[in-house]
From TrEMBL:
Ranges where the Aspartate/glutamate/uridylate kinase domain occurs: 1-274
Alphabetical list of Pfam families matching this protein: AA_kinase
Protein's name in the database: Carbamate kinase
Record family assignment: Belongs to the carbamate kinase family.
Protein source organism: Streptosporangium album
GO cellular component terms, semicolon-separated: cytosol
InterPro entries the record matches: AceGlu_kinase-like_sf (IPR036393), Asp/Glu/Uridylate_kinase (IPR001048), Carb_kinase (IPR003964)
Amino acid sequence: MRVLVALGGNALLRRGQRPDADLQENNLRASVTSLARLAERHELIITHGNGPQVGVLALESAQDTNLTRPYPLDTIVAETQGMIGYWLLQALQNALPGRQVAALVTQTLVSAVDPAFKNPTKFVGEIYSQEEAEKLAQEYGWTVKQDGRYWRRVVPSPAPRRVVETRLIGRLVRDGVLTVCAGGGGIPVIRNEKGRLQGVEAVIDKDLTGSVLAEALEADVFMMLTDVPRVARHFGTPEQEDITHTTPHQLRAERFPAGSMGPKVEAACRFVETTGDMAAIGMLDEAERILEGRGGTIVTPNATWPLASTL
Ligand SMILES: Nc1ncnc2c1ncn2[C@@H]1O[C@H](COP(=O)(O)OP(=O)(O)O)[C@@H](O)[C@H]1O
Ligand SMILES: NC(=O)OP(=O)(O)O
């Protein structure tokens, strides 16, 4: 089977951890164990988040007095693809000796007139108190918003249309290369009036890009791995109820928070609605169980749809 996995931020940084390189590398080493087992039996494409890391590097650049102006966000997304791609590459190569692994820097096309450019919603970087966040916003021209109990920087997050390097990725996958790509949703680019690719300041949602890429690569399964075992109804309340198997129709009748489970549910629904194949959301270390339909929240076109593992 061909499986596209979108790796959640928790694989790199647990909540509250400082974004030190050695800590993230250690976390990843543990996280790739389950991915390596999947890669032994399936064609695997891996994408990953970059929200915390993109914010850290953007702040670093904003504070660099040698620069005339801070690095733009598209360049910083590229930096995170290199950094996280390198960590994943090495961890996967060590877990799968002899296997060809590639980590690609890739771009994702968005619309230059996407309304998201006027309404930043994507949380990046570290968490702050309201006072700290407002001070930083004034100093660096950021937009900041409340994220639960804390405050964070927000940046525009336009909808992904296509991963520019889709054909190349497909070729690598067909050649048996375990491919890491579209990290952080991909480097956001538009086609300008001359038809040329040009970077834009944004951070794309990695789950939405994962869905677009999984469809384009004709993946059998699109799996989003995070730090909760299942999507839940009435999340965080005494009435919380895990969803094991559902359909886009049922999911679209519920509401999920914009900054976290909302984009995952939307990405799952789009993939299933467009392809008629299976999407899933669940825990990183349960990847194999999820693929067998024994873990996570499985999303299929209807309730009696055969699970991917039985196809
Ligand atoms: N209805 C829900 N069911 C499960 N988790 C939810 C729900 N609503 C919000 N969440 C939160 O979504 C988080 C996963 O989203 P996010 O932090 O964006 O994931 P990642 O960074 O791993 O991609 C979970 O840790 C959980 O706290
Ligand atoms: N780009 C992106 O969606 O990153 P996170 O998943 O880390 O927020």
